[in-house]
Amino acid sequence: MPFEYISTDEAIAADGLRMVVVGNVPSPWGEAAKGIFHIKNIPWKAVRLEYDNPAFDAWAKQQTGPVAIYNDDAPLSGWREILEFAERIAPEPSLIASDSEAMFRFCNDLVGENGLGWARRLQLVDVGLKGEGGFLEPVAKYIGQKYGYTPEAGAASSARVHELLQQIADRLKAQKAMGSPYFFGQSLSAADVYCATFLALLSPLPEAQCKMKETTRAAFSTLDEATKAALDPIILAHRDLIYEKHLELPLSL
């Protein structure tokens, strides 16, 4: 499902669905939302996040991405809000597994606070502040302040990343034993989309599929030996399958 980038002024004047995205970075929260809209064939327009535009602040009501705004409705920025909005306006194909409660718990462990994306972000802040890779120091300081980094949270982040990668691998192996490449049942769900897109923080897609700044690629590719060991090949194989069969390549950032 192709989309176009428009300016903030154009977005404010437009109807339909517009979504704020972080420009030139494969932010997994934004890429997941893009993927959901693509799978559901929902038309939308992209607006890059602006940091010094009062008109943008008044419209989006926050300095983050993604933020989805439909017509004159209130902005939606939570991952579950955006998913449930997409389900309402385009019920088919549904991305909610039959065991919806288990799926939403699983998704929260990927996307929500203290989930995989959250913990990995703190891990990259922690090593960045120590000069061991990850985010460059100015970026690490900004992200760390924004998302509650403390030395204690940084120290705990790696164990959380490893724990969640193990859970993901275990579920994929159990599903494979039952003849399914997906996390729930025999069909695609939001869990598959979130897992595939959030791996950008651990193993970025090749340059031909996702162009990004070298500093960003280097940051996201930072893996200590324990994290590298926790990133089971079955997780990367799942990522590749979901992009090949269900998502759009190359990424448009």
Q: Rounded to an integer, what's the Rg over CA atoms?
A: 18 Å
Assembly state (oligomeric): single chain
- Helix share bin: 40-55%
Shape: globular
Mean pLDDT: 96
The biggest sheet, with number of strands, parallel, antiparallel or mixed sense and barrel status, is:
4 strands, mixed
How many β-strand runs?
Answer: 4
What percentage of the residues does DSSP assign to strands (E)? 5-15%
- Total number of helical segments? 12
Give the N-terminus to C-terminus distance in angstroms: 14 Å
Series of secondary-structure elements, N-terminal to C-terminal: EHEHEHEHHHHHHHHH
Parts with pLDDT < 50 across at least 5 consecutive residues: none
Please identify the structural class as seen in this structure: mainly alpha
Strand order in the sheet with the most strands: 1-3-2-4
Structure description:
With 253 residues, the protein is mostly helical. Helices cover 53% and strands 6% of the residues. Strand 2, helix 2 (28-39) and strand 3 form a beta-alpha-beta unit. Helix 9 (190-198) packs across helix 12 (233-245). The longest helix has 27 residues, at 151-177. It starts with a strand and ends in an 8-residue tail after the last helix.
Structural key phrases:
mainly alpha; 4-stranded mixed β-sheet; 4 strands; globular
Concise summary:
It is built from 12 helices and 4 strands; from the N terminus they run βαβαβαβααααααααα. The protein has 253 residues and is mainly alpha-helical. The longest helix has 27 residues.
